[in-house]
Design goal:
Layout (H helix, E strand, L loop, with lengths): L9 H14 L6 E2 H7 L6 H9 L12 E2 L8 H4 L2 H10 L12 H4 L4
Parallel strand pairs: 1-2
């Protein structure tokens, strides 16, 4: 995984999160922890979550491609329901197991 450099405070970290998220290709997903590692901030999954929560809509980020380490969808309030995020991912060819989790072996983004 590549590391994003350049940090000018929390805003700079958030901008770097957005740069990474923007690169997640269709049909792939990344975890909060994976993005934190790419930032050079191991253990920073929660920070990535804060950045995603604050993501400006005008950036057009594929936020639906960011999931937790277990392959689970975002909390209900993020997209209006878990069904919406799942439908967006399924439209891109992402598959799920019988428990409703993303097939991480097949769809985890690897740079």
């Amino acid at each position: 995984m590549s590391k994003v450099t350049g940090d000018n405070g929390l805003d700079g970290v958030f901008e770097n999160v957005y740069r990474i998220v923007k690169r997640i290709p269709e049909g792939k997903v990344a975890t909060y922890g994976q993005i934190a590692l790419m930032l050079g901030k191991p253990g920073g999954a929660r920070l990535v979550g804060w950045a995603m929560r604050a993501a400006p809509g005008h950036l057009g980020l594929p936020c639906h491609r960011v999931i937790n380490r277990l392959g689970e969808m975002a909390p209900e309030h993020v997209f209006g329901s878990r069904h919406i995020q799942r439908a967006m991912l399924e439209a891109e060819g992402v598959t799920f197991d019988i428990y409703g989790r993303v097939n991480m072996e097949r769809h985890r983004w690897a740079e």
